[in-house]
Design a protein that fits this description.
Elements lengths: L4 E7 L2 E10 L8 E7 L2 E9 L12 E7 L20 H14 L11 E9 L7 H13 L10 E7 L5 E3 L3 H5 L3 E9 L5 E10 L3 H6 L7 H29 L15 H18 L5 H19 L9 H24 L14 E5 L7 E7 L2 E10 L5 E2 L8 E2 L1 E6 L16 H14 L12 E10 L4 H15 L9 E10 L2 E6 L3 H6 L2 E7 L4 E8 L6 H25 L13 E7 L4 H5 L4 H10 L2 E6 L4 E7 L2 H15 L9 E10 L2 E7 L2 E6 L21 E9 L5 E5 L6 H31 L4 H46 L6 H4 L8 H12 L26
Helix pairs in contact: 1-2, 1-9, 2-5, 5-12, 6-7, 6-8, 7-8, 9-10, 14-15
């Protein structure tokens, strides 16, 4: 195994963070392979190049792929196949982040295919991997032998609550900051840093921190942050140079620069077509300008066809030369005359338009127009359970504010395939999403999931910033209480003949022909998002500061136009949107709101038509109620509030209730929200005895009941309406019935016995009775002791039953917990014996028969 070469260095200002590069041990067949680390976050970045140019390639084919492996975070993919599928959004955004500073760092005319692959091996849930990947990609290219004008360094900085810029913040540090910014650049010969790429955005915590006094990130703070970032970029570049010096560079690859046109073709195109192209590029309307430009190209090609008939690829050479001449004409006109393609000055905005409520059925909609750029945004509101679950390798597992961006071919007047979002669409949607994050209310303030969709209907410059403006209009139309309106503007820069000219509200052609474009979004007071790409080495600080201030002036004008359409969020969501409320309940009340097997919450949903969800938080339960009908939401809330603080029942009042539970001793009836009472089994039969509660009532039955009693603990005893009998009178009647039946039955049995015994004679009976009397006399005292013991045990059982009944609280009622009075016929039976057999001896008159003569001390002497 090859020996690894490693270099590392602590990050200044954050000595607990160390950036390291390793090469030589992994992926030895790649042209360049570097393992970059910070903390335990590890990514292997490889760079490979094709040795031949693909036939017909007229562009630089650079591809960057990021492979997020779930094992890096100790996870198994959640998909059906348990395998990583298409690249997640986080990986696609990282690919774009790497591509943007790398692409301009290859030689002009270099057309060999380059493939950069980053495989995330470890994700420690603390350090993001994207900035590490940029540095790793630069290091891999620098040692590969591929022609690359590097190294390039990158850093993420966060603006802390104290107003300081923190290098390489962790996820936690970033979440606690007001603003995060990724900056990439190269170190020039004079030691300065040429900033090549910036990606920045505010955080969810920003507004609260600003409210507490944290300095706001405005244009001046941004310029300061960019200057501070140069220090850490130099450190990253220095570490890569140490790796290059230690590991060495592979032999330079052989390649041939591709020439799009010969000098002869270039001169001929300028001679024939300069005036035609200048006239075409002075037309303000995009469609007319494109038509005139196409006509000029055709005339130039026709005029030069015979002159270069023998030249290889003459048509392609002429077309490329025409494009180059067009670029030169546009740039010269801007710098020398101060006039742009559509006739505007450098700082002029195109005509603006704003409108809300465009789609009636939508929860919110906004249409924004800037010149020929037109973007329609639709807001859809959903419950908290509609948030996006993210199965990734970073700590972020959910997202409730979602923005999607669509760019169909017809928006540029072209045909094409529509097969899902491309990387560009994902990147533009993410930028517009980040621009609004700092002003979106929290879940506690507005308990909705938000999905915004930007439909680009027409495109001629900065549809991403048009999406920001239309998103603000749409959110306010939907009644989302955003903290402040946000607008965005795209800026450009042309560096020609030693002069810098900053352009406001650039067109698509100006974006292509310029040297820098940057997009700035924000409120009237602070910046919420920034994206910057330059094609030149270095940008003077005063030029950058002037460009940012020029962007702020344009942003304020756009905000003013947007306020003309809607100046504040609507007071309530639109009629088509769900009405959602959210509140906390005590943890010990969650069970009462849900009910056994969900019966209570299901009943509330069935009765009101609202959707009710109860979530268990750390210190409280969270109830969320939603419905398109506000009255349904209010009714569901009312019922839940009554469960939390139930009303009190009145003794003697009649209530219509529903049977909610059945036990062996009675039925529980819900008579008020949160108030159940017990109808004892003895009161369900209306004077007759029943064996099973289910024989009389069933779950869900409606009953009219009377509150009979409420004990000090609030437990309610109920009886059926119309049932005026009490338990004691019923028991007496049953005892009398059993007594009369018992005496008659015994007389019949005794008469039959007397007739059967007639033949035996009275003397025999006396002998047997004497022996019985003697037996009973000897064991009478022992039997009395047994009876006393049994009586004591029965008394103990009664006491225990009474205590259990008291513990049952609301199910405890004096008339059902009283011990049952067993029917006794002993007195009558003993009197009958005395009449028939005479005195039976001591204790005989009070002796009771013991269950089958099985007493422990009973005399077992045979008769």
């Amino acid at each position: 195994m090859a020996e690894a070469i490693t270099v590392s260095a602590a990050v200044s200002g954050a000595e607990d963070k160390t950036l390291s590069f390793e090469t030589g041990r992994l992926a030895g067949l790649a042209d360049g392979a570097v393992v970059a680390r910070m903390g335990d976050t590890t990514i292997l970045v490889t760079a490979t190049a094709a040795r031949r140019v693909r036939e017909g390639a007229d562009f630089f084919p650079l591809t960057v792929d990021i492979e997020e492996r779930m094992y890096a975070a100790g996870k198994i993919p959640g998909s059906f196949f348990r395998r990583e599928g298409r690249a997640p959004e986080s990986a696609i955004l990282t690919c774009r982040l790497i591509d943007r500073p790398l692409r301009p760092s290859f030689p002009d005319g270099f057309r060999n295919e380059i493939h950069v692959v980053g495989t995330v091996l470890g994700a420690d849930q603390e350090n993001p991997y994207d900035v590490i990947a940029i540095n790793g990609a630069s290091a891999a290219l620098s040692i590969s032998g591929i022609p690359f004008a590097g190294p390039i360094g990158a850093v993420r900085v966060a603006h802390s609550a104290e107003g300081e810029w923190i290098p390489h913040p962790t996820y936690a540090e970033g979440a606690e900051s007001t603003f995060e910014m990724v900056v990439a650049g190269r170190v020039l010969d004079d030691g300065d840093v040429a900033i090549m790429m910036v990606e920045a955005n505010g955080t969810e915590a920003g507004w609260e921190l600003y409210s507490n006094g944290t300095p706001k990130v405005d244009e001046a703070a941004l310029a300061e942050g960019l200057e501070r970032s140069k220090e850490w970029i130099k450190e990253a570049v220095g570490l890569q140079r140490r790796l290059i010096a230690t590991a060495g560079v592979k032999p330079p690859m052989e390649y041939e620069l591709q020439v799009d046109y010969t000098p002869e073709v270039e001169a001929a195109v300028a001679e024939v077509g300069a005036d035609k192209l200048a006239a075409a590029m002075a037309i303000a309307d995009k469609a007319e300008r494109q038509e005139a430009e196409t006509k000029a190209k055709e005339e130039i090609a026709e005029a030069l066809a015979e002159r270069f008939v023998e030249a290889e690829g003459a048509d392609k050479q002429i077309s490329a030369a025409v494009r180059s001449l067009t670029k030169s004409i546009v740039r010269t006109r801007i710098v020398q005359d101060g006039v742009r393609i559509d006739g505007r000055g450098a700082g002029d905005l195109r005509p603006l338009g704003s409108e809300v409520g465009v789609v009636e059925t939508a929860h919110g909609s906004g249409l924004f127009e800037r010149g020929e750029t037109q973007v329609l945004n639709i807001t859809t509101l959903g419950t908290a359970r509609m948030d996006q679950m993210i199965d990734g390798i970073d700590p972020i597992d959910k997202k409730r504010y979602i923005h999607h961006y669509n760019f169909p071919p017809y928006s540029t007047g072209e045909t094409g395939f529509m097969r899902g979002p491309k990387r560009r669409e994902i990147g533009h949607g993410a930028l517009a999403e980040k621009a609004l994050v700092p002003v979106v209310p929290s879940m506690d303030e507005f308990p909705y999931t938000l999905r915004l969709v930007s439909e680009v209907l027409s495109s001629n410059g900065s549809t991403s910033m048009g999406s920001v403006c239309s998103s603000t209009l749409s959110l306010m139309d939907a009644g989302v209480p955003i903290k402040a309106p946000v607008a965005g503007i795209a800026m450009g820069l042309v560096f020609h003949e030693g002069r810098y000219t900053t352009l406001t509200d650039i067109l698509g052609a100006e974006d292509a022909f310029g040297d820098m474009d940057f997009k700035v979004a924000g409120t009237a007071d602070f910046v919420t998002a920034l994206q910057l790409d330059t094609k030149i080495d270095g940008l003077p600080a005063d030029v950058l500061a002037g460009a940012l201030n020029q962007a702020r002036d344009a942003r304020l004008k756009i905000l003013e136009v947007m306020a003309g359409a809607i100046d504040a969020p609507r007071d309530d969501v639109r009629p088509t949107a769900p009405k959602i409320i959210k509140f906390e309940i005590p943890l010990d009340k969650i069970g009462e709101v849900i009910g056994p097997k969900g019966k209570v919450i299901n009943s509330i949903q069935a009765e009101t038509g609202a959707e009710v969800n109860v979530d268990d938080a750390q210190d409280a339960g969270i109830v969320t109620i939603s419905s398109p009908d506000r009255d349904c939401v209010d009714e569901a809330e009312r019922q839940i509030r009554l469960i939390l603080d139930p009303p009190t029942a009145d003794v003697g009042e009649v209530y219509s209730g529903k049977v909610v539970n059945i036990t062996s001793f009675g039925a529980f009836v819900n008579i008020l929200p949160g108030r159940d009472g017990l109808v004892h089994i003895s009161k369900l039969g209306r004077g007759r005895r029943i064996d099973r509660v289910e024989d009389v009532v069933a779950l869900g039955d409606d009953l009219d009941v009377v509150v009979e009693d409420i004990d000090p603990n609030g437990k309610i005893s109920l009886k059926l309406t119309g049932d005026d009998s009490d338990r004691d009178s019923g028991a007496e009647r049953r005892s009398e019935d059993r007594g009369s039946r018992g005496r008659d039955d015994r007389r019949d049995r005794d008469n039959r016995r007397s007739e059967d015994r007639g033949s035996r004679g009275r003397d025999d009976r006396r002998d047997r009775d004497n022996r019985r009397s003697e037996d009973r006399g000897s064991r009478g005292r022992d039997d009395r002791r047994d009876r006393d013991d049994r009586r004591d045990r029965r008394d103990d059982r009664r006491d225990r039953d009474n205590r259990r009944s008291e513990d049952r609280g609301g199910r405890d009622r004096s008339d059902w917990e009283a011990p049952a009075q067993a029917a006794s016929f002993e007195a009558d039976f003993e009197a009958q014996l005395r009449d028939e057999f005479g005195d039976l001896g001591p204790g005989g008159g009070s002796q009771r028969r013991s269950g089958g003569g099985r007493g422990r001390d009973r005399d077992r002497t045979p008769r």
